[in-house]
Specification:
heterodimer, A: about 325 residues, alpha/beta, Rossmann fold, 8-stranded mixed beta sheet, B: about 900 residues, alpha+beta, 6-stranded mixed beta barrel
Chain lengths: ~325, ~900
């Protein structure tokens, strides 16, 4: 492990981590068998700063689950570059994969059955990854209790998942995921099976964990409300990152706090970008467009020989602002 | 905490764990019990065969002409000779020694043998000869153990006779002893008409030509009479006619009695200078004992291969004694029949043994697949493959080892036999199998599976493995067949013989699984036109999702083939035995012994259940003249009209040409044995039966089962011979044919009453059933039944495990179908559709396999101890096979019902959509 792990106890047993940086460049994953090839990721670019809280949204089949599988070390990308906390995922294998899964990443899945073992109680579930990592029994017990405390589910300590509510299950799942103090926490639809209020609660919990431990959190979801809880939302389309929404709080001159969300298109190293679908359909863009370089922006024009002759007005497509 | 987590994870699929433990325990028990039982039945068989053999045949015996003592060498006394024999006992191998009793040395002294009185010497005695005797004889016997088994009841024990040698002083002051003291048994003395004090003279007593003083002839003096302490003792079987005189009859003269006159053992030494003819017999009793039969046999062979030098070796005197025992043949037979039995049983057992391990593999797969999610999660959360496999292996050990220990211990206690480490090889394998199988199971992964584009390399490798398996099975069969009977003539376990039936079963199962979709397509096509949803869906699933059913296919197939094989093998063996006994017997019933007059024969023919009789009159050593040359042959006069009918179906029966019952010109038609064929044709043939009878050859035959013995014989018609010779030739052999539905026991009883209980009555069915109740045959039948029961249980287990393994998938399917509105009945039928086609295919293939396997056994296992023929023809008893097949069908049906009921109950728990992938 090349990353350093700074551990300072917070609230008794939670630890502060750093260095959980996620870098994906031109990531490609091709499933091939018997002449059929499916390209699940087609040159995806993603950069997440250490300690950031990012949501990835995308329609079903857009490749977000593939990305998560790769980031969690379960699958290996076909080409490109991917590293998490300095670990190169393309060359990951054997002992390094085990170490990566033990200490670098933790994850929470949508389905409870994939997060928690039904025949273990909450404490034992939290203890499992630590036991697998070979920690001492005393340390395991102390940390498991502290984690349950931090996530507000210490009352579920001796209950099995079957006896917990959905929210409690997911909180426990988060505790399990961060048990070994990973630098990165991956979450796949963590709120998929929860109602709105509970969803918000769980997402707040993830924010708390992010804030208190400095773990990088990556949430994959198609739930639009999730993006309200994160600073940065990345959208994936057809195996590529297409747009990003950045959220910040601004205080205006009257002292009122504003939530500002700005949407960006993602531009890769060689200058490729995707136009949002609604832009394409609104302007009836097809086959090819005309580009013009202006002083401070670039313009995209419908091909004049195609479709109705345009009014000639240039449409700013490189920036769009949205207020909520 | 770690242990607790391990424990929790191990107990999370308790059902599969219990199944594994039960399989291991039962398998270890059976694997342990099998060789022990096999040894136990072998020991039973040996004891049985040894006990069947009478003491005299069992004993090590030897007879030689010559003196074991020497008159000139004083050290070669009777005691010294006995010591030499005792040396044999001392030097016998460790297996034989404990079974050996005290050796006996008997010296019989008489005249060169003369018919019919043998070596007996005629004598004169003062007491008159009993009127009913034509002559009285005696032979002198010396044995020192006599008085350990008999008591003197009158007179005294005979003293040693010093012999006729001159007195040591040479002055003739002491007259040579001229009286040899002897004693008889009370009964012998009575029969011979002698009493204590009688001087027996007139026999060729020893003479001393060099001694003029010995003008007086040497006589035997009866000094005492003895009686056996127990006349049923084995001791007296060895000393033939020691207690009662042997009676020899001469039709012209009358009866002669030959009695045994016992002398002091040392008398023999003095007698050895005489011209009398000595016969030395040695007898070492062998007790019935079990233990290492092969070792015993080796020791016996060792003893019988050695010469025991007795008597003085100088002057070309003394004698070399060779011991022999019929026990060698008996043990050899027992070993051969045991080997045949175990070879057949190994063929049967190989299937279930293989299925056991396949079941364990299925059980472990179930155990892992039930914990798919758990293991995948543990793996994803940082459990290294070694960690997880290690945990699984530890779990396998915890499951397997105690269960195997329990099973093996139970078998060891229940089947008391000698402890042999080799017995625990297979149980140990069963103990370790769960650990190995669990650890080598493919670990599930959390990685999302895309079935549409998953790689198909595993199925490609499966093809390769399957083709390889079929090729290996074919090669094994070829090797086995080309090696022939050698396969079972070695003592060690032959891996090829053991593995071949399993390989064949496996190959058959693989082929059946592969070919199974083809007939199913037809069913599916028919179901598509039909209206039933279950049939359509079920057949579609059977075609497109087949491949998981290899283990249940194997189990069902093995079970069916064992049932069919056992039946065919038993009918083959019992028919072979029947034919062998029938050929030896000559007919279904054989009467031999007393003369059977025409009235008796007519009465026997009148008995209900008797179909026909054929009389056989035999005249041994009849002169058969062809031209100038005369040969001696046995002439058989038979009922030529009925012999063919009586011997219907008898192997090697004599086929007589028609017209044997009428004269051809002056001559009687005659059939000659092939060895008796005259060198030239056209010679005048005649036989001498009192007078010269002209015969004419009408045929030749190689064999005449049931009556003709030896190579030289001839057959004519009985009535015609009587007519021509005018003699009343009374047959002493009667062959009887019984009605097909005759009550053999009733007929036997009735016939026995008619003949007055004299002679022997042998029925072939009686001998056949005697074979079927011998330990070897019984153990074979028991082995068949055990293998069948085990394989039925294995089939049930295999089906249940497979159904449970497929339960989550079926559960999702049914859940989807339920939402689409399928009825409960149709969803139950879907379960049947998983099993019934599989069962039918297994039944068909298993039947074919079961019918074919006996041919392999017949070709590779030496079955001569059972049937006389090493490769008897395979016999299928249609009726019995149909019955067994119906039974198998019923059991299979029941199995399917039970398995689907169990599976339905177990699959209820996974009826939720979306749970576990």
């Amino acid at each position: 492990m090349s990353t350093s792990t700074a551990q300072e106890p917070i609230d008794g047993a939670t630890t502060r981590v750093s260095g959980g940086e996620i870098v994906c460049e031109d990531l490609v994953r091709i499933y091939a068998a018997d002449g059929i090839e499916v390209q699940a990721l087609q040159g995806l670019n993603l950069h997440v700063e250490a300690g950031d809280l990012v949501a990835i949204v995308g329609a079903s089949g857009s490749g977000k689950s593939t990305l998560l599988t790769i980031l969690s070390g379960l699958d290996t990308p076909t080409a490109g570059r991917a590293s998490v906390a300095g670990v190169d995922l393309l060359t990951l294998g054997g002992k390094r994969r085990v170490a990566y899964q033990r200490h670098t990443v933790g994850f929470v899945w949508q389905q409870t059955s994939r997060n928690l073992l039904p025949y273990l109680n909450a404490l034992e579930n939290v203890a499992l990854p630590m036991a697998l990592a070979g920690q001492s029994a005393k340390a395991i017990d102390e940390r498991a209790d502290a984690l349950l405390e931090m996530l507000g589910v210490s009352h579920c300590r001796d209950r099995r998942p079957g006896a917990m509510s959905g929210g409690e299950q997911q909180r426990t799942a988060i505790a399990v995921a961060v048990a070994n103090s990973p630098q990165v926490l991956l979450a796949d639809e963590p709120t998929g099976e929860l109602d709105e209020a509970t969803s918000a609660e769980v997402l707040e919990m993830m924010r708390t964990v992010n804030a208190e431990t400095g773990v990088t959190v990556l949430i994959v979801t198609h739930d639009p409300t999730v993006s309200e809880h994160v600073r940065r939302t990345v959208q994936i389309r057809d195996g590529r990152t297409s747009t990003e929404v950045l959220r910040r709080r601004e205080t205006d001159e009257h002292g009122a706090e504003l939530h500002v969300a700005e949407e960006f298109a993602v531009l890769d190293k060689v200058g490729r970008m995707q136009l949002p679908q609604d832009f394409v359909s609104a302007l009836e863009l097809k086959d090819r467009v005309r580009l013009t370089l202006e002083e401070d922006h670039a313009g995209v024009w419908r091909d004049g020989r195609h479709g109705k002759p345009g009014p000639g007005g240039d449409e700013p497509t490189d920036q769009q602002e949205e207020e909520r | 905490m770690r242990l607790r987590l391990l424990l929790r994870q191990a107990t999370s699929s308790i059902g599969a764990s219990i199944a594994i433990m039960v399989i291991v325990a039962v398998a270890a028990g059976l694997f342990t019990a099998w060789p022990r039982l096999s040894r136990a039945t072998f020991a039973d068989e040996v004891t049985f065969q040894m006990a069947q053999t009478n003491a005299n045949a069992r004993a090590l015996t030897g007879t030689a002409l010559g003196w074991p003592v020497g008159a000139f060498d004083t050290s070669t006394t009777y005691a010294a000779a006995l010591d030499a024999v005792e040396g044999v006992v001392d030097e016998a191998g460790p297996m034989l020694r404990p079974n050996l009793g005290d050796p006996e040395l008997l010296i019989s002294v008489g005249m060169p043998p003369v018919n019919p009185t043998g070596t007996g010497m005629p004598f004169d005695a003062p007491t008159p000869r009993p009127a009913d005797l034509a002559g009285r004889f005696f032979e002198l016997r010396a044995i020192d153990s006599l008085l350990e088994h008999a008591t003197i009841v009158a007179g005294t024990e005979p003293a040693a006779w010093p012999g006729l040698q001159l007195d040591a002083s040479g002055d003739g002051s002491t007259a040579p002893a001229t009286q040899i003291e002897v004693m008889f048994s009370v009964h012998t003395a009575q029969r011979l008409g002698v009493s204590v004090g009688d001087e027996l003279s007139g026999w060729p007593s020893p003479e001393a030509p060099a001694s003029p003083e010995a003008a007086e002839p040497v006589v035997a003096v009866v000094t005492g009479l003895f009686e056996a302490t127990d006349q049923d003792e084995e001791y007296w079987q060895f000393q033939v006619s020691g207690l009662t005189p042997r009676i020899a009859s001469d039709p012209n003269a009358g009866d002669f009695a030959i009695g045994a006159a016992y002398v002091h053992p040392d008398t023999a030494q003095a007698l050895s200078s005489s011209a009398l003819r000595p016969t030395t017999s040695v007898w070492i009793p062998v007790a019935v004992g079990t233990g290492d039969v092969a070792g015993l046999l080796d020791d016996l062979r060792d003893v019988t291969a050695r010469n025991i030098p007795l008597g003085e070796s100088g002057f070309g005197g003394g004698l070399q004694m060779r011991l022999g025992s019929q026990l060698i043949d008996v043990l050899d037979r027992a070993i051969t029949s045991q080997r045949g039995t175990s070879a057949v049983l190994t063929l049967v057992a190989a299937g279930p043994v293989g299925v056991t391990f396949a079941l364990l593999a299925l059980g472990t797969r179930l155990s892992v697949s039930r914990r798919r999610a758990t293991l995948a999660l543990a793996n994803a959360r940082g459990g290294s493959p070694w960690q997880i496999r290690g945990a699984l292996a530890a779990e396998g050990l915890v499951l397997g080892v105690p269960a195997a220990l329990l099973g093996a211990a139970a078998a060891t206690v229940l089947v008391p036999e000698s402890f042999q480490l080799g017995d625990y090889g297979l149980p140990a394998l069963a103990a370790l199998a769960p650990a190995v199988l669990l650890a080598s199971e493919k670990l599930p992964s959390l990685r999302t599976q895309r079935a549409d584009i998953s790689t198909r390399s595993s199925s490609r490798w499966r093809w390769v493995a399957e083709v390889l398996l079929v090729a290996i099975a074919g090669g094994a069969v070829y090797l086995l067949l080309s090696r022939g009977l050698q396969a079972t003539t070695t003592t060690t376990v032959d891996p090829l013989t053991t593995a071949t039936p399993l390989l064949i079963s496996l190959a058959a199962a693989v082929l059946a699984t592969r070919l199974f979709p083809f007939p199913m397509r037809l069913v599916h096509a028919a179901a598509r036109r039909g209206r039933g949803l279950a049939a359509f869906l079920g057949s579609a699933r059977a075609i497109r999702e087949s491949g998981g059913g290899l283990v249940p296919m194997l189990a069902l197939l093995v079970g069916t083939s064992i049932a069919i094989f056992s039946t065919a093998m038993l009918s083959t063996l019992s028919t072979g035995v029947g034919e062998a006994t029938l050929a030896a017997n000559g007919a279904e019933m054989r009467l031999a012994g007393p003369p059977y007059s025409d009235e008796v024969v007519a009465e026997i023919e009148g008995v209900e259940g008797v179909a026909a009789t054929a009389r056989v009159f035999a005249e041994p050593q009849t002169a058969l003249t062809a031209g100038e040359s005369t040969r001696q042959a046995t002439l058989y006069a038979v009922d030529t009209a009925t012999l063919g009918i009586v011997q219907t179906g008898v192997t090697g029966a004599l086929a007589l040409p028609a017209g044997m019952a009428a004269l051809e010109g002056e001559a009687i038609p005659i059939v000659l044995s092939s060895a008796l064929l005259p060198e030239e044709d056209g010679l005048d043939l005649s036989v001498r039966i009192g007078s010269l009878v002209p015969v004419t050859q009408v045929g030749t035959a190689a064999a005449a089962a049931g009556f003709a013995e030896g190579p030289l014989w001839a057959v004519v018609d009985l009535e015609l011979l009587r007519e021509v010779t005018g003699q009343n030739l009374v047959p002493r052999l009667l062959l009887v044919d019984l009605e097909p539905d005759a009550d053999v026991d009733a007929v036997t009883t009735e016939v026995s009453r008619i003949v007055g209980g004299i002679g022997t009555i042998a029925t072939s069915s009686g001998q056949q059933s005697a074979f079927l109740s011998s330990p070897s045959a019984i153990s074979m039948q028991v082995g068949f039944v055990v293998a069948l029961v085990v394989s039925v249980l294995q089939s049930v287990l295999a089906l249940v495990l497979t159904l449970v393994l497929a339960a989550p998938e079926r559960g999702r399917l049914v859940a989807v179908l339920r939402t689409l509105g399928i009825g409960a009945r149709d969803s139950r039928r879907l379960v049947s559709w998983e099993l019934v086609p599989l069962g039918i295919v297994a039944l068909v293939v298993g039947t074919v396999l079961g019918l074919a396997l006996p041919h392999l056994v017949v070709a590779t296992v030496d079955l001569s101890p059972f049937t006389g023929q090493s490769s008897p023809p395979v016999v299928y008893d249609g009726g019995r096979l149909a019955l067994v097949l119906a039974g198998v069908l019923a059991i299979l049906g029941l199995t399917l019902l039970v398995a689907s009921a169990v599976a339905r109950r177990l699959s209820l728990s996974v009826l939720r959509i979306g749970d576990a992938t």
